[in-house]
Amino acid sequence: MSAAVALLLTVAVDQIPEDDDVVAGWTAFAVFGLLIVAVVVLGFSLTKRLKNTAKAADQGLYDPSDPRPQRPARGLAAARQMREQAAREQPQEQAEEQAGKQDQTPG
């Protein structure tokens, strides 16, 4: 029972602030701004390092015995690869058909 009385007293004594009294303040605004700046700086740094990595790979600074893993193409790149593969196979199929027709003709 004493716990219930203590709870009622704290509710009665504590006043709920008005909506206009509760604000985030300039400190929270500054922290939010600094977080945005940090994300932008990290993005530029990542881009710079990825470009340096690509340049180093082109210059042959990495061990050539470690092959780069080939990732499967997705989306538009996969569609382009399929078109290119079909274009390469099409002349071969046509040549095979013509060779088959020449074999079937009585001669």
What does it look like?
This protein has helices at 2-13, 25-59, 75-104. It is mainly α.
Task: Give the arrangement of secondary structure elements.
Elements: H1 2-13, H2 25-59, H3 75-104
Tags for this entry?
single chain, 107 residues, mainly alpha
Task: Compute the CA-based radius of gyration.
Answer: 35 Å
User: Helicity range of the residues?
Assistant: over 70%
Q: Ends: how far apart? A: 113 Å
Number of strands: 0
What is the N-to-C succession of helices and strands?
HHH
Low-confidence stretches: none
Gross morphology is elongated
Q: Estimate the mean pLDDT confidence.
A: 82
The proportion of residues in beta strands is: under 5%
Q: How would a crystallographer describe the biggest sheet?
A: none
Number of helices: 3
Concise account of the structure shown:
The protein is mainly α and 107 residues long.
